[in-house]
Specification:
The complex is a heterodimer of chains A (195) and B (338). By secondary structure, chain A is α/β, with parallel strands linked by helices. Chain A is 59% helix and 12% strand. Chain A has helices at residues 15-27, 42-49, 63-68, 89-98, 110-158, 162-176, 180-194, and strands spanning 7-11, 32-36, 53-57, 80-82, 100-105. Chain A has a five-stranded mixed sheet with strand order 2-1-3-5-4, with helices on both faces. In chain A, α4 runs parallel beside α5 and α5 packs across α7 (180-194). Chain B is globular and about 60 Å long. The chains are: A alpha/beta (195), B alpha/beta (338). Chain A binds chain B through residues 39-41, 43-44, 58-70, 72-75, 82, 84, 86, 92-93, 96, 101, and chain B through 38-42, 45-46, 49, 51, 70-73, 126, 131-134, 154, 157-162, 164-165, 168-169, 172, 174, 309-311.
Chain lengths: 195, 338
Amino acid sequence: MSDTSLTVAVIDPSRARAAILEEGLRAAGIGRVVVMADTADLMERVAALAPDVVVIHLESPSRDILEQMSGVARHVERPVAMFVDRSDATMMQAAVDAGISAYVVDGLRPERIKPILDIAILRFNAFSRLQRELSEARGELADRKLIERAKGILMSMKGLSEDEAYKQLRKKAMNEKRKIADIARAIVTAADLLG
Amino acid sequence: MRLHLGYVPLCDAAPVIAAHEMGFARAEGLDLELTAEPSWATLRDRLALGYLDAAHILAPLALASALALSGPPSDLIVPLSLSLNGNAITLSNPLWATMAPESERLADVAGAFARMAGARREAGRPLTLGTVHPFSSHTYQLRLFCEAGGLDPAAVRLVAVPPQHSVEALSRGIVDGFCAGAPWNAVAVAAGLGRIAALGCEVAPDAPEKVLAVAPRLEGAIPPLVRAVAHAGRWCADPANRTELAHRLARRPYLNLDPHLIARTFEGTIVLDGPGREREAPDYLRLDAAAQEPRAAHVGWILSQMRAAGQMPAEDLLPAAEAVYRPDLYAAAGLSPA
């Protein structure tokens, strides 16, 4: 896709996510992509930019500003409308799943908007997948550190080898149907309090 | 049964929050999962597309969603009204000082506002007022406030201001005033930035404000949900429970604001300005039993306001709108009469 005559504004409380979408739209040949901060003067800035399409994250409180800029407000020169493709319920669902809504200048043809939404859906989904993986990785790392500390406590208090300490943790976790990291956390907390 | 309910963090979300917090839902065999929604548009879309089972929503937006005037088409229904009134119009301190109304009576205040707004319009610098969404009683109350002073509402610019931006918008001069629900007017007054010029209950007495909109697919779960939220609303309206209610609402994840500020809303003691001038308005926010029936008269009022604001297509949508409100489901919930 290459739609060099279009101006697209991106509004997202997450700067990182906005940057990822911006890059995707640029790579697809969109003429002008502008990331806008979610601040109180947003309406003035949108009116000044006069974008053809605004892609806005569902978590942005500024969506209601764009709704007010729709046809009902007579002073707005280029009225916008929420893009709802009634013929394509699957795409609407996918957009909301990804956290996206779009507002378009009245009269812009749906076939010019769909590729933009497709890119936004792909990019936002990729972003949340990355975020999930990152937080899982962080959680695993934190768990591993806890288990190391708990092993150390058991080794010094009970004179166990590292292997024996780990086996005791694992046995306790199995007996209590809990995760090893939970048992480790309890040991570390207790040692902090008593130590 | 687990139900997912959306709300926007405001004082008038009290009935849905209390239904969960005070055990009214559990008593009906329901487990409510509440989520604070970041905007009315997102709440509307999540309800329309089935991500939410029910929601605390602006009454006009519920109708606009069901009539396909706003957002994706939806089949929501309204079996319960949550509140009447609850809004106020706050003007910036400089604007209020320039207006210098003869008295605090609505006619004098609206008249003084109209003269200022007219002059600014003549000068090519129209006043800008903030609402919360085009389909809101706030929009209509601002229009009625203009008309009360003999001003054509088209003489002012109407923009939307998300409530959490209202204080900043006022301080930076992005708006000259705004109409919002509690507690945001009190927040602007406490910040020393605004003057409450008129209460919603004076501009349009007993105007329909928020409703409980539900997805009809809930079927058998609707009567217990209506009972739980209605009983919670009546609990909220009882003066004996105000302190506890204000403290619960003030916490995270709900309003996360000063409980005293929230309590004043329920007491109907409204602080109007920085020096602390007060007005007693027992009907400032009505959550009582008599406010709960979803009435055809409310639908009529909202549609006439939509029409006046140029939000309606030419066709007659009144029969379709009346079908959205379900006093029969309210009656079927078997609540004791108001």
